[in-house]
Design a protein that fits this description.
Layout: E1 13-14, H1 17-27, E2 35-38, H2 46-53, E3 55-60, H3 66-73, E4 78-83, E5 101-106, H4 112-120, E6 126-134, H5 135-142, H6 152-158, E7 161-169, E8 174-175, E9 182-189, H7 200-212, H8 218-221, H9 228-233, H10 247-262
Parallel strand pairs: 2-3, 2-5, 3-4, 5-6
Antiparallel strand pairs: 1-8, 6-9, 7-9
Length: 263
C-alpha cells in the first residue's frame, strides 16, 4: 500500500527526477563522507546519497516509512536509520573525530525555523548543510541589509554561515503539491568566524528585539535591551532601523553590550 503523506508531519514527497538530479549535483557526495539526511521520506534523495557515499545516517520520525525504506535501499550501502524527531536529535553523536557531518534535508515547512536554530546550535559537528525549504524562508536567510526580506533569520544565520540560494523548486515536484514554492539552500559554517560573538544569547536577544519592532528606530526597538550610549559607542545611528544594519554591526553592538554588562 502506498504511504499517504501525513499533514501532521508536514510531509510533501519529492518525486521529480530532474530536481532530484540537480540536488545530487549540488551536494556532490563522495565515498567516505559522513552524510546525514533529515526526513528521508520515501527515499527520493536517499537513494543517490547512499549510492554515492556508501554509508548514510537518516533521521525519520514517521515509523511507517522506516521498513519500506530499509527494504528498498538497504542493499545499496550501510543505511543507518534513526527513528527520532530531528528537533530533539543530537547530531554531535554521529560526528567522528576526523570530520564533520554533511547535512541534507527536505525540511517540514511548519517547523523549518526551529530546525534551523537547532542546527545552528550544533554547527561544530557540521561541514555544510543542503536544505530544501519554502522559497520565502530561503529568500529571508540569504537577504542582504536594506532588503525587505532581511530580518532576524538573515542575521542569525549569516552570523555563523555563508548562505547561498541555489535554485527554485516548483510545487509540482512534490506529492502532494504544496501551496508554496520551494528553494534549495546551501549553508557553510564560517570558520573562523569573521565576527566572533562574545555572548550568543545576548546577541540573539538584541537581534530579536530589533526586528520585533522593525518599523521603529533602534532607539525605540532596543529600549530596555541596550542602552543608548552603547548603540552610539558601536558607531550606530540610533535613528536607523533594524534592516539597515549589517551582520557585523549587530555583532559589534552585542559585544559592546556584553562587555558593559561584565564591567
Amino acid at each position: 500500500m502506498e504511504h499517504r503523506a501525513r499533514k501532521r508531519f508536514g510531509q510533501n514527497f519529492l518525486h521529480d527526477p530532474l530536481v532530484i538530479d540537480r540536488i545530487h549535483a549540488a551536494i556532490d557526495a563522495r565515498p567516505g563522507e559522513r552524510l546525514v539526511e533529515i526526513g528521508p521520506g520515501q527515499g527520493a534523495i536517499t537513494q543517490g546519497l547512499l549510492t554515492r557515499s556508501g554509508a548514510l545516517d537518516v533521521i525519520e520520525l514517521d515509523r511507517d516509512l522506516i521498513e519500506p525504506l530499509r527494504q528498498r535501499l538497504g542493499g545499496l550501502g550501510e543505511l543507518r536509520i534513526h527513528n527520532a524527531d530531528a528537533l530533539d536529535f543530537d547530531l554531535c553523536t554521529l560526528a567522528d573525530s576526523e570530520g564533520a557531518l554533511r547535512l541534507v534535508g527536505n525540511l517540514p515547512y511548519n517547523i523549518s525555523t526551529p530546525l534551523l536554530f537547532h542546527f545552528l546550535d550544533q554547527l561544530d559537528a557540521l561541514q555544510d548543510m543542503h536544505l530544501m525549504l519554502q522559497k520565502e524562508v530561503v529568500d529571508r536567510i540569504a537577504a542582504e541589509p536594506g532588503d525587505k526580506t532581511y530580518g532576524r533569520l538573515s542575521v542569525m544565520i549569516q552570523s555563523r554561515c555563508a548562505a547561498a540560494s541555489l535554485f527554485r523548486i516548483g510545487p509540482g515536484a512534490f506529492k502532494p503539491a504544496p501551496k508554496v514554492e520551494s528553494a534549495f539552500l546551501r549553508l557553510r559554517p564560517l570558520r573562523p568566524l569573521p565576527h566572533p560573538i562574545d555572548d550568543p544569547r545576548l546577541h540573539g536577544r538584541i537581534v530579536a528585539a530589533a526586528f520585533g519592532q522593525r518599523r521603529k528606530t533602534l532607539r525605540n526597538s532596543l529600549s530596555g535591551v541596550v542602552d543608548l550610549d552603547i548603540i552610539e559607542a558601536a558607531g550606530i545611528d540610533p535613528k536607523r532601523r533594524a534592516e539597515e544594519l549589517d551582520v557585523a554591526s549587530y555583532t559589534r553592538l552585542a559585544n559592546l553590550a556584553a562587555s558593559a554588562t561584565a564591567d
